[in-house]
């Protein structure tokens, strides 16, 4: 028998249509798309209890693995500025050209767990910790310059959508499933970043040949208190390269650790990867000069409108001693800044300023995670924060408060003119409101610009990326809605994807035709030095020691990574031999292939290696016997990038292009 209170409660529940969204305290929510801010382009307000509750719960969902970016790998290095940037900032690592600043960088995937493969299609994290003489500065970015959402309150929704679906925990490490593409179709702000992720940028060849971006708009402040808006870029000096999708899938099965192994081995052998730091800078007076909002994290600043100024170089030159102690325990936070750098009202950045510390407290067991060696600044730490879980310091003295007279008011504050941090004094006014600025509402112009900047092979790969991912969805409505969204960007893209996945081509739209743009600097425009590329050399038969040593010498002279491959390992000399077999390696693990055949009769595996290398558009060098032996294979030896030669130097000529996309 139910009492009157229970009956009233049941009647109240039934009076609502569907499920009303509430806080964890049962309070109905009227807005779940935007954080509370001072006005529609203003800073977020701490009193937004719904945002804080939603983000706090999200940050504590899983322990101890990172909720996102769990699969990561890191290395130590250093940064040095090329020029004095005192005109823009008084951050010491950007103004003193004689100063070498230690750094730690962690690369990562977003979606997968710690055990997921390196080569999945995903956005890659590119987080850099600068140990400056003014404190720690963390540049916590990605390999794609924009993000899926505009407001941090949407971050739990994005990650819930892209993570393995909760009813079956499938798929691991990728976005090819219904919930992500349902999110994409229902949240058009995600269009731009998704376009990048489905292009070649979503499957980088390795960490060394990957761009990095700070994503957000920050401020640089100079000694006179003058501010400029800034975006941060990392430009790889190794060039920019990706895999083809078939290759990425094979490598995931052949070597789940392909990216981390590549970085580890490059540093171990002294082939230190380098990136140049670039800044895009906009004076405060030009904040509203553009046809996009510079605070919108789903928008780039086109480089033909705001050029990238190269200001310094980072070199990674030391591997970690212990992956757990360093790579897993490193704690990044976009709120770790130094004098001369400050925030803007970018609504995604504003939310991250809360979220990251909250996450680290949960994941690393308490508020003292900054005392873990990898997180310690190089500057002394003095404050009145005491005790807490995992406290490592033994604090001495009677006082732990400010102001005090018993300890001569130590630790004391420092005036800005003596190096103390001072927030930029931005005038803020407006009504408290949960609304997004209308200037954020153009969701399709920049994705269209990105597509128009791609070469034809890159465009074709993007079609294939969308087709594979949407083809894995089970719900026809999800596929159709996603293609409808693509149609707002490109009729051509929508038609090709719709045909590939078996849904209707949307009614024609009035697509705005844009001129070809150079603003994205597509992958084909990056210079690719020869150094560091990998070469597989198949030894099919008994070739002379002198022949093999000549090939090895050319590889060493050109700083190429190489391995001799045959049916079985053979020592030719004490320090020189055939170290790999057809069973221990795979053609997808190399950037090119040389086949040295003793006769016109070759192993079946030699032919298989040649065909896969050819299929993936990579350079292929054959001696005369190998060319004749492959005459009945799927390798067309007349096609670009297939060279016939008896001399090892031909590999240098073959690498004029890393991929020969014009191959039939």
UniProtKB/TrEMBL annotation:
Compositional bias ranges of the Basic and acidic residues kind: 1-17, 29-40
Keywords tagged on the record: Heme, Hydrogen peroxide, Iron, Metal-binding, Oxidoreductase, Peroxidase
Renumbered residue ranges of the record's region Disordered: 1-40
Cofactor(s) listed in the protein's UniProt record: heme
Domain Catalase core: 22-410
Catalytic activity: 2 H2O2 = O2 + 2 H2O
Family in the record: Belongs to the catalase family. HPII subfamily.
Protein name as it appears in the record: Catalase
């Amino acid at each position: 028998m139910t009492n009157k209170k229970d009956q009233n409660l049941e009647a109240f529940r039934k009076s609502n249509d569907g499920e009303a969204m509430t806080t964890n305290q049962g309070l109905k929510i009227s807005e779940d798309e935007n954080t509370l801010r001072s006005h529609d382009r203003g800073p977020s307000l701490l009193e937004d209890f719904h945002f804080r509750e939603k983000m706090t719960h999200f940050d504590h969902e899983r322990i101890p693995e990172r909720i996102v970016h769990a699969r990561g790998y890191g290395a130590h290095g250093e940064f040095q500025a090329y020029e004095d940037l005192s005109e823009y900032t008084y951050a010491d690592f950007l103004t003193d050209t004689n100063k070498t600043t230690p750094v730690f960088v962690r690369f990562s995937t977003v979606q997968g767990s710690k055990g997921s493969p390196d080569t999945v299609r995903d956005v890659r994290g590119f987080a850099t910790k600068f140990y400056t003489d003014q404190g720690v500065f963390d540049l916590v970015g990605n390999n794609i310059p924009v993000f899926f959402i505009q407001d941090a309150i949407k971050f739990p929704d994005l990650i819930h959508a892209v993570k393995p679906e909760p009813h079956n925990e499938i798929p691991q490490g990728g976005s090819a499933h219904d919930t992500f593409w349902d999110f994409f179709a229902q949240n058009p702000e995600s269009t731009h970043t998704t376009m990048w992720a489905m292009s070649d940028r979503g499957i980088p060849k390795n960490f060394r040949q990957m761009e990095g971006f700070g994503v957000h708009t920050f401020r640089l402040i100079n000694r006179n208190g003058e501010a400029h808006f800034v975006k941060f870029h990392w430009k790889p000096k190794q060039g920019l390269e990706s895999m083809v999708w078939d290759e990425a899938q094979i490598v995931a099965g052949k070597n789940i650790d392909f990216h981390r192994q590549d970085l580890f081995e490059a540093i171990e052998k002294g082939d230190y990867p380098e990136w140049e730091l670039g800044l895009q800078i906009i004076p405060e007076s030009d904040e509203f000069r553009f046809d996009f909002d510079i605070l919108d994290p789903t928008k780039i600043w086109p480089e033909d409108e705001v050029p990238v100024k190269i200001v310094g170089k980072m070199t990674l030159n030391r591997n970690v001693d212990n992956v757990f102690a360093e790579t897993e325990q490193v704690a990044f936070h976009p709120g770790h800044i130094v004098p001369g750098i400050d925030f803007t009202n970018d609504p995604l950045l504003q939310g991250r300023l809360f979220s990251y510390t909250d996450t680290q407290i949960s994941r690393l067991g308490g508020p003292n995670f900054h005392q873990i060696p990898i997180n310690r600044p190089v500057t002394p730490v003095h404050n009145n924060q005491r005790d807490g879980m995992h406290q490592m310091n033994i604090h001495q003295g009677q006082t732990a408060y400010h102001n005090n007279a018993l300890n001569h008011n130590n630790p004391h504050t420092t005036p800005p003119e003596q190096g103390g941090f001072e927030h930029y004094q931005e005038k803020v006014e407006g009504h408290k409101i949960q609304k997004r600025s209308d200037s954020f509402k153009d969701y399709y112009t920049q994705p269209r610009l990105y597509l128009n900047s791609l070469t034809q092979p890159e465009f074709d790969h993007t079609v294939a990326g969308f087709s594979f991912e949407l083809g894995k969805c089970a719900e026809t409505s999800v596929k159709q809605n996603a293609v409808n969204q693509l149609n707002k960007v490109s009729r051509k893209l929508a038609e090709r994807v719709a045909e590939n996945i078996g849904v209707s081509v949307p009614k024609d739209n009035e697509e705005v035709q844009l001129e070809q743009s150079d603003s994205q600097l597509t992958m084909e425009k990056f210079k690719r030095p020869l150094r560091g590329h990998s070469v597989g050399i198949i030894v099919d038969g008994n070739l002379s020691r002198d022949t093999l040593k000549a090939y090895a010498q050319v590889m060493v002279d050109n700083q190429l990574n190489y391995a001799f491959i045959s049916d079985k390992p053979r020592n030719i000399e004490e320090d020189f031999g055939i170290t790999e077999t057809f069973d221990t390696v795979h053609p997808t693990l190399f950037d090119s292939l040389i086949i040295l055949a003793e006769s016109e009769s070759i192993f079946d595996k030699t032919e298989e290696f040649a065909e896969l290398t050819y299929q993936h558009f990579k350079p292929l060098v054959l001696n005369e016997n190998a060319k004749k032996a492959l005459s009945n294979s799927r390798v067309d030896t007349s096609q670009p990038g297939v060279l016939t030669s008896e001399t090892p130097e031909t590999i240098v000529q073959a690498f004029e292009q890393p991929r020969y996309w014009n191959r039939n």
